[in-house]
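USER: Write out one fold?

ASSISTANT:
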Amino acid sequence: MFCVDISHEKSRRNLKEIFGIDIWSGQMESINKSASKSVDSFYQKRKKLEQEEPLLVVQVDGKGIVMRENLKKATQGQRQKKGEKNGKKKMSTVTAVYGIEQNIRSADDIIRTETDIKTQSLVVLDKKKGVIPQNKVVRATLEGKDRAFQNMAKEVNLRDPEGKKDHIALMDGEKALANKTEEYLPGFTIILDLFHVMERLWSLSYFFHKEGSDEALRWVRKYLKMFLTGKVGYAIGGILQSAKKKGIKPDRIEAMKKHLRYFETKKEYMKYDEYLKKGYPIGSGVIEGTCRSLVNDRMELSGMHWSEKGAEAMLKLRSIKINGFWNEYWEYHISDQKELIYKWDSAA
C-alpha cells in the first residue's frame, strides 16, 4: 500500500519507523511485481455488474514513463530505437471506462457569454449538476494499444453484455486510436474531444488577430459556434476564404491549412450538433485527470526511472487502488496464488 503511492525508499523508511524492520528497496520492488500477477485475471473475472446509466463511455490517451534503459542510453549518447520518445520515455496507454447520464445541451449552453481572456476559458461542458461519471474503471499499460483496447473491450462486455446502452468513444485526433476503436469496439460512436478542437481554433485565431486579444476571442467564439451547430465544412471554407481576403501571405496560409486539414479529416467525428441533442459528452476531461492520478502522481516522482516490468506492475496495482478494489483484489490474489501453489504441489 505504501509503495503504490510513494517511492520504494520512502516506503522502506516508513516501515522501519513503524515496525523496526528494514526491508531493502529492491525487495519491495520484487514484492510489488509479484503482487500484481493476478490483476488481469481479477478484472476479467469480476462479477458482471450491468450499469444503470444509458451512456457507456470509453476514453484513451498516452502518457510517457521514464525507462531505466532509455535513460541510460540517453546519458551515454546512444542512438534510440524507434518509439523511445526523447531517449527517456516509453509511452503507456491510459484508459477509462464509465457510465454517465444524458446531458442534452445546445451550442449556446456550451459557449460562455463571458470569458476570461487570460485563461481562454470559453466553454462549459456541463449544463446539469450531478452529471458525473459513475463506476469509473481506469487502467494503464506499457504493453501496447492492442492490450489496452482488449482490456477495455472486456470491461465493456461486463457492463453491457447485451449492448443495450449507447456506446461512445471520446478520443483525440490520433488515427491509430480511431482504428483500434473500430477494431476492438465496433459500433462505438467516436467523438473528437472538443478540447483538441479548441487548441487548434486558438492557434488559427492568431493568424488573424493578436494573441490574447478580444478580437481573437470573438473569432474563436464565432467558429466554435459553427462547429457546434454542425457547420464544420462551412467553417473550414470560411476560414480559408477569410485568410485570402485579408491578404495573409501564402506561406502562412499553408501553415493554416495544416490545422484545417485536421478538421477536414476528422469531420465524421465532429457531429457535435447531433451529439448535444443526444446528450453525449464531448470533452475528455476524465482521461486527462486519469493520466495525472494514475501515472504522473506516482511514476513521475522526483528521480523516478523504471524497468518495464516494474512500471507495468506499478500501473496495475495503482489501478486497483484508484478504482477502489484494493481489499477485494487482495482476497482474490491470495486465493489465486494458493490455487497455483496447490497445482504445482499436485504436479510434483
Q: What stands out?
A: The chain has a mean pLDDT of 88. Residues 326-347 form the longest helix (22 residues).
